[in-house]
Design goal:
With 122 residues, this protein is mostly helical. Helices cover 59% and strands 3% of the residues.
Amino acid sequence: MSITTPEHDERIAKMTFASVYPHYVTKVEKKNRTKAELHQVIEWLTGFDDNKLQQLIDDKVTFKTFFEQATIHPNAHLIKGVICGYRIEDITTTLTQQTRYLDKLVDELAKGRKMEKILREG
């Protein structure tokens, strides 16, 4: 059973990564984490290095395009918990789930979690 509505999924698909990225930066920097750490987390999840990330921001790609171009880390399924009121492991729409993975990683970074825990290294 899907816990997100088609409207919710569509809204996420159409949002641009560039519109959300500054909020990620603000969120982690407010908690004394760095943009470099944020990029490390994003690269772990998506495979995007700094140059590719900047290109995607400049191109104002949607989350749909962003995740279509990503190589999702094989341990991403280990990202569990509740984000924005949704239990990540129960989300059935792949794109919405991947977007929530990213939200959860940013959250953990902002909350001061150790990098090896965030990057699911065991």
